């Protein structure tokens, strides 16, 4: 692809590619490039724009972009080729393995209104975080929250999503509204069905842990605005991944 062809390819991607927000650079960059691939804006067998072009359009570092491309390569969506005519090329995605468990997961996801679920989840989580910080936690409650955070930090990959769920459920339970906690438990079950349909990404988990730590710190310091903002950003990162993989 010469420079004129590459410029034309980037222009074709202009409706999708845009600068990401600083808080969720990896997740939002991944979601946007996933959308490029899934929409067929770069057809199978053709090359994505050069790394420098993608990084500039997305407003991310080359290091972050390479991590994004590595995820897509691991998922079989792109391949890297070396040499004068090398680059990152779009591949036809591999067929998912047949099987009852996979079919059942697809059926469950197919019945979910993803946008409604993600928005409701954000409302509940942001509200719970703000309430916990505004009303304050006693010593026992603060200990429970710190313990739940520690469990996510010590979790193996196989256990991470369960520990992550327990941390978020703990926050919902501590906000002082049993009704909110019950609603959150229900929506979290749906969110977990959606999460089961996408891969665990180490970079995303590391970022989530940073947000978890900032969230707990804000709650324990009584910073309601800070707690709400961190939780809103955290929910947005998860939503970006889910939209990218499931849309």
Automatic annotation (TrEMBL):
Stored SMART domains: FCD (SM00895), HTH_GNTR (SM00345)
Origin superkingdom: Bacteria
Keywords: DNA-binding, Transcription, Transcription regulation
InterPro entries linked: GntR_C (IPR011711), TF_FadR/GntR_C (IPR008920), Tscrpt_reg_HTH_GntR (IPR000524), Tscrpt_reg_Rrf2 (IPR000944), WH-like_DNA-bd_sf (IPR036388), WH_DNA-bd_sf (IPR036390)
Gene3D superfamilies hit by this protein: GntR ligand-binding domain-like (1.20.120.530), Winged helix-like DNA-binding domain superfamily/Winged helix DNA-binding domain (1.10.10.10)
Keyword Secreted: no
Residues covered by the HTH gntR-type domain: 23-93
Record's keyword annotation contains rRNA-binding: no
A Pfam family matched in the record: GntR
Protein name, as recorded: FCD domain-containing protein
Species for this entry: Streptantibioticus rubrisoli
Record lineage: Bacteria, Bacillati, Actinomycetota, Actinomycetes, Kitasatosporales
């Amino acid at each position: 692809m010469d420079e004129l062809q590459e410029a034309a390819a980037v222009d074709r991607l202009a409706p999708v590619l845009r600068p990401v927000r600083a808080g969720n650079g990896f997740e939002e960059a991944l979601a946007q490039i996933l959308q490029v691939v899934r929409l067929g804006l770069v057809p199978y067998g053709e090359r994505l724009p050069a790394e420098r072009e993608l990084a500039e359009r997305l407003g991310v570092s080359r290091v972050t972009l390479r991590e994004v491309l590595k995820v897509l390569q691991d998922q079989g969506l792109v391949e890297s080729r070396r040499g004068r005519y090398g680059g990152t090329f779009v591949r036809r995605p591999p067929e998912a393995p047949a099987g009852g468990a996979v079919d059942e997961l697809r059926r469950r996801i197919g019945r979910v209104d993803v946008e409604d679920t993600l928005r409701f989840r954000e409302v509940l989580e942001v509200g719970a975080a703000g309430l916990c910080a505004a009303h304050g936690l006693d010593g026992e409650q603060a200990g429970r929250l710190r313990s739940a955070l520690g469990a996510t930090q010590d979790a193996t990959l196989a256990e991470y999503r369960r520990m992550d769920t327990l941390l978020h459920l703990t926050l919902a339970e501590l906000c002082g509204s049993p009704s909110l906690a019950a609603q959150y438990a229900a929506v979290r079950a749906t969110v977990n069905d959606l999460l089961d349909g996408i891969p665990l990404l180490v970079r995303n988990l590391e970022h989530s842990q940073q947000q978890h730590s900032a969230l707990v710190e804000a709650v324990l310091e009584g910073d309601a605005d800070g707690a709400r903002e961190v939780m809103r950003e955290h929910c947005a990162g998860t939503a970006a991944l889910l939209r990218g993989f499931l849309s």
